[in-house]
Amino acid sequence: MKNKKNVYTYFFVLSVLLIIYMGYTLFTTYQQLSAYCNNYNTTMAAQWGYCLQTFLAAIVPCLVYASTCYGIGYMIKNH
Prior knowledge:
By secondary structure, the protein is an all-alpha fold. It has one domain (2-78). The protein contains two helices and no strands. Helix 1 (2-39) packs antiparallel against helix 2 (48-78). The longest helix has 38 residues, at 2-39. Keywords: Membrane, Transmembrane, Transmembrane helix. The chain crosses the membrane at residues 7-27, 47-76.
């Protein structure tokens, strides 16, 4: 029983770490896009398609992995 608790706790902790990493990635992506817009003398609103694509590429994988880890931990806990 103790081993089961360790396993689902591991998945819950991993999902929290992935969410934290997603926040860090979001912050650094915003900084890079801001620098890009300053270098090319444009705004994020003018480049909304590129900005949206970049933010989604940074956020979606971490969100999917975190959700998957949380789901696995939840299934192990309730099994």
